[in-house]
Amino acid sequence: MACLPAAPPALALRRWLGLGLFVLLCLSRGYALEKKVVKSKVGEKVGLPCCHEIPSSESLHNYRVYWQKNTTEVVLAYAEGRMISKHERYENRTEMDTRNLTLWISPMEILDNGPYQCVVQHLRFPQNSVVVCDEPVTLFVTADFSKPNITAEVSTNSCESTEMVVRCSSHGGFPKPKISGALNNVSVVWNASWVSESSLSPYNVTGKLWLNVTKDVSITCSVEHNGLLKSTSLLLKKPNTCFVPTVPPSYNVITASSIIIIIFLLAITLAARYLPRHVCSHYCKPQDSVEEGVKECMKPPMSSKGTSETSFL
Ligand SMILES: *[C@@H]1O[C@H](CO)[C@@H](O)[C@H](O)[C@H]1NC(C)=O
Ligand SMILES: *[C@@H]1O[C@H](CO)[C@@H](O)[C@H](O)[C@H]1NC(C)=O
Ligand SMILES: *[C@@H]1O[C@H](CO)[C@@H](O)[C@H](O)[C@H]1NC(C)=O
Ligand SMILES: *[C@@H]1O[C@H](CO)[C@@H](O)[C@H](O)[C@H]1NC(C)=O
Ligand SMILES: *[C@@H]1O[C@H](CO)[C@@H](O)[C@H](O)[C@H]1NC(C)=O
Ligand SMILES: *[C@@H]1O[C@H](CO)[C@@H](O)[C@H](O)[C@H]1NC(C)=O
Ligand SMILES: *[C@@H]1O[C@H](CO)[C@@H](O)[C@H](O)[C@H]1NC(C)=O
Ligand SMILES: *[C@@H]1O[C@H](CO)[C@@H](O)[C@H](O)[C@H]1NC(C)=O
Questions:
Q1: Domain ends where: 97, 121, 142?
Q2: Which ligand is nearest to the CA of 158?
Q3: What is the pLDDT of residue 129?
Q4: Residue 120 covered by a domain
Q5: Which atom of ligand 8 lies nearest, measured to the CA of 214?
Q6: Ligand 2 residue neighbourhood (C-beta within 6 Å)
Q7: Is the CB of 161 under 6 A from ligand 4?
Q8: Boundary (domain end) residue, out of 193, 214, 236
Q9: How many CB atoms lie within 10 A of CB 282?
Q10: Residue 131 and residue 90 share a domain
């Protein structure tokens, strides 16, 4: 675009002749104008390159360096080797390399997104200082989205078909994501909504889908931002309601009767195991002979067993 004004007049011949020069001009200008973009993620450490490296014969004392954001806020500034200004929001998060003037920021925040610029002035006394260079660099900070969460809610169900509302949600990412879906590998469009507190805040995305299914289907939800895709799939089971509706016993009845049966069985088991000894302690004590008592214990009277069972119940 910046090259267009430099285009030669529309005469075909001159255009062809001038093409070489034009391309060269464009390449060099394009290179100079090429915007530097630094990409990073929330929480990471990143270095924004400056346009000047201080030669080893000199030091930061001979320079003034301004690192500014969006041409209005000074992030960090040095003059004659001393820090002269720093931004509250960047406090304790910045460092500048004293040789190549790279600005290091850590940990990265979404709010750090934006255009930055480093301006380097060389101090030459007693003359005025001269601007050595002035270069923009764009910082692009992203945040990952959570793995999409799919939930399904049946609204109406019959033997033939089931209507349900399927929701897919993912949160905490930046920038605004795209949400896509597939139903049995055929793409579907989610009715999507995004929420974010501001243009530089994490996004939450929710997709909604109304489905009318006649059999089990597989649904996939994908959330994409900045070339990164996160997907979740869920098998939606068609509830099988195609039987003659007999009144099924309620769960309470089943539970109560199972408990009674279990107690009953336990009672029998316990009685069979421990009762003989109890009977023994009752019946054996009066016995004089230990051996006779043991014998008695092995064969408890049938009647005692019967009574104990009934007493348990
Ligand atoms: C600046 O120096 C640091 C080491 O001090 C290095 O990691 C970084 O890559 C350098 N940056 C440039 C743009 O040369
Ligand atoms: C920066 O660090 C200093 C010293 O460690 C600390 O006193 C100050 O509270 C920190 N400031 C912020 C904004 O974290
Ligand atoms: C940069 O500043 C302009 C006005 O000075 C403002 O409209 C814009 O939103 C700012 N951009 C960023 C990324 O802060
Ligand atoms: C998915 O969402 C449901 C309902 O909002 C919630 O109960 C569940 O914990 C979520 N699962 C995950 C893995 O976030
Ligand atoms: C969907 O496609 C994938 C591969 O593209 C395949 O493995 C899978 O079985 C397919 N699922 C269905 C339900 O067709
Ligand atoms: C998406 O949902 C909104 C609100 O529930 C509704 O107004 C809109 O019609 C829906 N769009 C589609 C394509 O279903
Ligand atoms: C996004 O979702 C998270 C977790 O579910 C929640 O804590 C946060 O408040 C939501 N943000 C917005 C802007 O709704
Ligand atoms: C769902 O599908 C069934 C059978 O395919 C049909 O009878 C019913 O009307 C459909 N419901 C809706 C809301 O489209």
A1: 142
A2: 8
A3: 81
A4: yes
A5: 5
A6: 91-92
A7: no
A8: 236
A9: 10
A10: yes
Query: How far is ligand 8, taken at its centre, from the CA of residue 163, in Å?
Result: 8
Q: Give yes or no: residues 47 and 125 share one domain.
A: yes
Report the CATH number at residue 194: 2.60.40.10
Distance CA 211, CA 222 (A): 18
Rounded (10°) CA dihedral 169, 172, 176, 181: -20
Residue 246 lies in a domain: no
Residue 159 lies in a domain: yes
Q: Contact at 8 Å (CB) between 221 and 151?
A: no
**Of 59, 80, 219, whose CA–CA distance to 150 is shortest?**
219
CA of 137 to the centre of ligand 1 (A): 15
113, 157: one domain: no
Percent of the chain at pLDDT exceeding 90: 56
Q: Whose CA is nearest to atom 1 of ligand 3?
A: 70
Written as six digits, the tokens of 176 are: 């605004």
Mutate to test the pocket of ligand 1, among 53, 97, 104, 135 (most ligand atoms within 8 A of CB): 97
* Residue 185 near ligand 5, beta carbon < 6 Å: yes
Mark whether 119 and 170 lie in a shared domain.
no
pLDDT tens per residue across span 116-166:
999 999 988 767 788 999 999 999 999 999 999 999 999 999 888 899 999
pTM above 0.70, yes or no: no
Is there a single domain that holds both residue 194 and residue 212? yes
Pick the more confident residue, 244 or 117. 117
Residue 57's Cα: distance from chain center in Å?
Answer: 49
pLDDT band at 218 (very low <50, low <70, confident <90, very high): very high
Q: Whose CA is nearest to atom 8 of ligand 8?
A: 161
Beta-bridge partner residues of 144: none
Position 92 in a domain: yes
Which atom in ligand 8 lies closest to the alpha carbon of residue 212?
A: 1
